[in-house]
Amino acid sequence: MTGGTRATRAIHEALPPAMREAVDDFAEHLARVRNRSAHTVRAYVADVVSLLDHAVRMGCSAPGELDLTVLRSWLARQRTVGAARTSLARRAAAARTFSAWAHRAGVLPTDVAAPLSSPRAHRDLPTVLRADQAAALVEAPDRRPSATRPAEATGPAAGTHPDAARPDAAGHRDDSAIGATRQDGPAGTARPEDEPVRLRDRVLLELLYGTGVRVSEACGLDVADVDHGRRVVRVLGKGGRERSVPYGVPAQRAIDDWLRSGRPALVVPGSGEALLLGARGGRLNPTTARRIVAGYAESLGLPRVSPHGLRHSAATHLLEGGADLRAVQELLGHSSLGSTQIYTHVSVERLRAAYRQAHPRA
Predict the structure, then answer these.
(1) Judgement on whether residues 137 and 227 belong to the same structural domain of the protein
(2) Which stretches make up the Core-binding (CB) domain (predicted)?
(3) For residue 236, what is the enclosing H or E element?
């Protein structure tokens, strides 16, 4: 087993050989056959390792000895130690996925987890900007003399752009980051070297809100993924699913300005075909993109928002404007319509709020 936390690897190594082999084969199935992301593989494998460790403690010595009683006992124990409903739902999903795979692979005589129910995860309504707030955020880079201002409240030093090099949660530095802090020039004027970053920020914000793509999808775009004639971008989403997403005239202008005057100033031999670049020329990192969005939002006094918040806002505004739910599902790349339906709840809540505020009989 590769990857995972030290504790997960230690538990994996302590499992009986047949169970270790089953975990490794399951991980390969998720990565190579199901084409799941590395994050999803790590999460599911950690859950399965925990399940099999619990099974061993209940007297099982091979994965074929798993039964529904063991699965329910494992979930009950997770709840006892304080696991959230969302965590329990994911762990139950991991157990069902493992059980179905193990049955098909001949590791389990039956799909023992098929009847396993899981707690319904609580789903908070997402934070959504108003249309005017979203427009202000997207246009923020054009209203500032320098692209460095938004990070003043959040950056490591005054005048530091969100692109500035600093470790992420794992202690790694973003390859695309600026090596030195950027500051405004005399009398608040922008320095020429800041202009490419400002143009990049505008493209990033336009794409996140104008298309509703995930931040990882935006950062993964290549130059060739932009179809200027049809004004669509080719996006590689979850599970390797590809889709085409339209964008508007403002985004087209931002892309044109970036490709003409911004990207050539940042490109380096190692840039490859990446559409969005960090200030050192590497592909823009999603962590850096999140800091950029948060910095601009904070500088405007907007509610705390992330790239996913812009995605929520785009979907909600589409539905409020009369878009069909299934069309929004396709645009967002949701595999299930149920994932898209949460945005109808957001719209209903707004309608209720307007009713309570304006109707004399509310």
Answers:
(1) yes
(2) 17-103
(3) strand 232-236
